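Before drawing any conclusions, I looked closely at one protein, both as residues and as discrete backbone shape codes, quoted below without any editing:
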Amino acid sequence: MKETVGNKIVLIGAGDVGVAYAYALINQGMADHLAIIDIDEKKLESNVKDLNHGVVWADSRTRVTKGTYADCEDAAMVVICAGAAQKPGETRLQLVDKNVKIMKSIVGDVMDSGFDGIFLVASNPVDILTYAVWKFSGLEWNRVIGSGTVLDSARFRYMLGELYEVAPSSVHAYIIGEHGDTELPVLSSATIAGVSLSRMLDKDPELEGRLEKIFEDTRDAAYHIIDAKGSTSYGIGMGLARITRAILQNQDVAVPVSALLHGEYGEEDIYIGTPAVVNRRGIRRVVELEITDHEMERFKHSANTLREIQKQFF
């Protein structure tokens, strides 16, 4: 991996998610240069202008341009938000056939530019498509990262914070597994303001039902939001910005992303949501949480669901 100069990012896909991510990047001042690629060039030109008109109020100047694949050559990161959108009532896994083909085309164009940075993938189904990007790119596994369960974990933390009337930053809890219907909450290691959630469950038997309802609302949130406004965008846009900051600022922080497993949780050769330590070179290491037998059973089911889809294409 060659060292790139500056913090240039190429964003591929300027739909609702891509634009929300771009807006978060500019407000947080993380990129020196943000080049955006999209097939709808007329709309892209207007989005680039609109974003540039807001740069004056940001903390630092970000150069926002209409990009081409040649921009990838010296980019630190390529972030993929392109692909067929999830329709009302459609699961993320139903998108796989259309989007694997799209990823193959995109990654081929990116790699032909001489790109040697880090891929961050947000297109759904994200675990399958991150695996696809890794296979198509030929890059080391740690330099291909999916958004994984970063949004699911944020939703879960927010709802737990509302229940206990504390800021979500004081809630430490992960959703792991597929970014989708088979994901699971890790209650065994969760804490609220430093207090173990497992201990709270021991003291309050009725809490289990409330937590299950919160998890169901977390898991199904996308369906309700998509049904009402057509897409989810702001939450994932900010989640992608958080992963980006961890990478570009070399933070070595644990973030719930889609990462390739090498024996963690007893699984291999599959990208799936789990905490991982992220820095300027990508994923430094996957964090294997200590989970209960019941949680492990649910994680295995999630992994098998993804693997059954994955083996149809790879």
Observations:
- The radius of gyration is 19 Å.
